[in-house]
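[job 0417] fold request received: 2Fe-2S ferredoxin-type domain-containing protein
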Amino acid sequence: MPLSTTRLALKDEKVKVVFNLYDGRRLETEGKVGDTLLDVVVNNDLDIDGYGACEGTLTCSTCHVVLKQPDYDRLPEEAGDEERDMLDLAYGLTDTSRLGCQITLTKDLDGLEVDVPESVNDARS
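[job 0417] inference complete; emitting structure tokens
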């Protein structure tokens, strides 16, 4: 398969993602490999109040999600310094907290489940 065809195939590959909301709703959707969780919320027009207010610029912490340990352990990258600084301001911080704008989907993350906290702290205010 030519390289350009391989890139195209990967670009269109999708994985399943589940957002568990504090009110008991479970939003099951798909996201493209290479997109962030914030992209998934926006591209699928998911009804998650206040999620991603800064549009992924690492200035608000409103896309804070909590992962179960097994899902957290399979993330391809650890949180960077800027993300950790912003997480310090997040509502309901846990050891497995991450910002959705910093989690990029890979094939290995198919079936990823994240919990969305009950409230948000918008660090911009």
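[job 0417] notes: The longest helix spans residues 3-11. Strands lie at 14-21, 26-32, 64-67, 97-99, 112-116.
[job 0417] exit 0
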